[in-house]
Amino acid sequence: MDVSELHIRRFDKVLIANRGEIAMRILRACHELGLSTVAIYSDADRNAPHVRFADEAYHIGPSTARDSYLVIEKIIEIARRSGAEAIHPGYGFLAENAEFARTCYEADLVFVGPPPSAIEIMGDKSTARITVSAAGVPVIPGTERGLSEEELLAAAQKIGFPLMVKASAGGGGKGMRPVHAYADLANAIAAAKREALAAFGNDSVYLEKMVTGSRHIEIQLLADAYGHVVSLGERECSLQRRHQKLIEEAPSIFVDEALRQQMGEVSVAAAEAVGYVNAGTIEFLVDSEKNFYFLEMNTRLQVEHPVTELVTGVDIVQEQLRVARGRRLSFSQEDVSIQGWAIECRINAEDPYNNYLPSTGLITTNQLPTGPGVRVDTGVFPGITITPYYDPMISKLICYGKTRAEAVLRMRRALNEYRITGVKTNVPFHQRMMDSHRFMSGKFDIEFVENQFSLTDRERPHGMEAAILVALAYHEQSQRAAQIVRAGTRETANWKWYDRMR
Amino acid sequence: MKYYATVDDQEYAIEVGHENRIIVNGQPYDIDFQKVPDSGVTSLIIGHHSLEAVVEEKDGDWQVLIRGDLYDVRVEDERSRRLSSARGKLGVDEGDAVIRSPMPGTIVAVSVSEGQQINKGDKVVILESMKMENELRSPRDGVVGQIMVEVGASVEKNQILVVVSD
Q1: B14 near A CB under 8 A
Q2: Chain B, 50-89: which have a CB under 8 Å from a chain A CB?
Q3: Domains in chain B: how many in total?
Q4: Among A33, A55, A155, B152, fewest CB within 10 Å belongs to which?
Q5: What is the model's pLDDT at position A2?
Q6: Strand A36-42 relative to strand A56-61: parallel, antiparallel, unpaired?
Q7: In this predicted model, what pLDDT tens digit does every residue of B74-119 receive, in sequence order?
Q8: Residue pair A231/A220 in contact by the 8 Å Cβ criterion
């Protein structure tokens, strides 16, 4: 256990080094625990709710994140000025930046997260793979980087087909080739090398087993500073587009008790191997035969943590703060039980009918769904402008039910109640998904959204009503204009006009 | 008064002004239309079917949000329609079409060249904004007229990027 680079002690004031819905989430947890809060804000966020809800607020710089929310020295300096004793990084921005965690330590501040060394190990794909593999976590079978072509050809037989040829310096699908039979391998390696050389100036490639029909399933962990690591079960996150998760569930319809236990145990072992403390998540690819392979560990709080909170009853953000204050986890593995079902839809400012183009603008209406089993985590209010500076997530709509079916029906109802205008949103995407048989039956993998799901076959049911509403509103506008011309400043409230009409 | 409202390529002729009755494409409906004070929402009861909507207008463009779907609606009254038809037919698919930047960002790639024949839906420009690469596609078939930006350029919202001609 290496907690030597982590102050673990009591604190009463927390600086939240983030914005948007996650800053709100952390503020709420702090206030429930009686901790006072310090917000930071950029130019664009002066009116944001996290500023208004915090006990103190400090301006940190211009709207671009690299001049504000990403500037470590400014954040440390505000912590000093405000007397904050701890920093919660949220997710994104500096949350997985080992240097930031280390700078907090050196500035005698409690970092609400894991030790910098754990962030470092898990932040490097290759080191992470070697580390967790040594701890007994299955990784996708493949070769090392930097083998010769002869060595690759020999290794391919052991890995088996289908497999992927990937560029060592890779990213963005460049220098990547699927291969289904040995006969095609030599050509694929040559092509991938050419592509990799052109794209990255480095023609080194490696092989990896192709995991087909796979799901993205992850395990939520909580660890205290005394060596206790507990699994809070899995989340199903297979519904993604361009590697962005869109819908998450807990539990997963695909995971039975035996698999849950097995995945939980290896995840705990992986966390122990790096001396992990605080909340973390291990992401896996799970194939149709229920073989699972390590993808990566996220050494921070995750966007989709609420679905786990709803089915376990554990407040993950409060636990993060408790653990950072030196408390032991208040429960053991045996106390964790999964009750009911939770689904989260990420509501993004983007146009699902136009290639998911991001949409910016002033939020004019923001009427949130409510009622039984509905939770909305958001940082958006009417009067807030969705800017191009930050990511396009407006809110997380989370629904809970006794069963998956109940949760789905509740989500459908809640999506119908959501009224947000000023930007286009992906609400219709979620509505279509909640209606889809594939989603209902739980038969989907990580390629479903991109390859087999379409919004265009959905008929928009209220076109005529929309036309009527606009005709009436336009009519009213013209009448009012005519009245003003006729009678100067006469009372022209809407209700009066309608009253006269009858 | 008679209005013509177009939604999702479907036109509705709507007669308004007969108490709480409207006529849509010749079909009469009983309606009750109320703006709920200070809430931003409008309640429409049409033949006892109840709907809540958000109706917004900006510079003559109307948008209606109903149960999660945002509808763009074009509306004109009888008079302006007569005037516009007197000016001659100005269909959507005629004349030059411009592709504008839907948001501020940086041009990552221009996938077409001037004079190139393209089809509706073809990728024209890739714009990076909100940490994502976004493909902008041609709204129609045509020939690439003018390319007004180059790779690496920063663009503002609504800036014209590419002109597509007949």
Answers
A1: yes
A2: 51-57, 62-71, 73, 75, 77
A3: 2
A4: B152
A5: 53
A6: parallel
A7: 999 988 888 777 665 444 445 678 888 888 888 989 999 999 999 8
A8: yes
Is A466 in Cβ contact with B134 (below 8 Å)?
no
Helix axis angle, A316-324 relative to A305-312, nearest 10°? 90
Length of chain B: 166
Complex ipTM more than 0.90, yes or no: no
Q: Residues with Cβ < 8 Å from A194, sequence gap 6 or more?
A: A203
Q: Are residues B103 and B161 in the same domain?
A: yes
User: Chain B: nearest CA to A281, how far in angstroms?
Assistant: 23
Rg (CA), chain A: 26
Q: What is the CA radius of gyration of chain B?
A: 20
Give A356's contacts in chain B (Cβ within 8 Å): 134
Contacts 24+ apart (CB under 8 A), B155-160: B155/B101, B155/B104, B155/B105, B155/B106, B155/B107, B155/B127, B156/B101, B156/B104, B157/A360, B157/B101, B157/B102, B157/B103, B157/B104, B158/B100, B158/B101, B159/B100, B159/B101, B160/B98, B160/B99, B160/B100
Cα atoms found within 13 Å of the Cα of residue A321, Cβ hemisphere only: 28
CA distance A156 to A163: 8
Is any Cβ of chain B less than 8 angstroms from the Cβ of A463? yes
Amino acid present at A359: S
Domain boundaries A13-112, CATH class: alpha beta
Those residues whose C-beta lies under 8 Å from the C-beta of residue A254, and which sit 6 or more positions away, are: A215, A217, A236, A286, A290, A442
Report yes or no on B91 lying in a domain.
no
DSSP 8-state class, residue A88: E
Residue B60: pLDDT band (50, 70, 90) is: confident
DSSP conformation class of B43: E
CA pair distance A22, A69, nearest whole angstrom: 13
Domain extent, residue B79, equals 2-86
Q: Which residue among the candidates A260, A300, A325, A346 is catalytic per the annotation?
A: A300
- Whether B120 and B159 map to the same domain: the answer is yes
pTM for this one? 0.85
**Are B82 and B110 in the same domain?**
no
Chain B residues in contact with A424 by the CB 8 A cut-off are 70
B33 part of a folded domain? yes
Report CB contact under 8 Å: A462, B57: no
Q: Which CATH code fits A215-452?
A: 3.30.470.20
Nearest CA of chain B to the CA of A460: how many Å? 7
| Other C-beta atoms lying within 10 Å of the C-beta of residue B67 | 19
Using CA atoms, how far residue A382 sits from A47, A152, A361, in Å, is 11, 57, 11
The answer to whether residues A235 and A398 touch, using CB atoms and an 8 Å cutoff, is: no
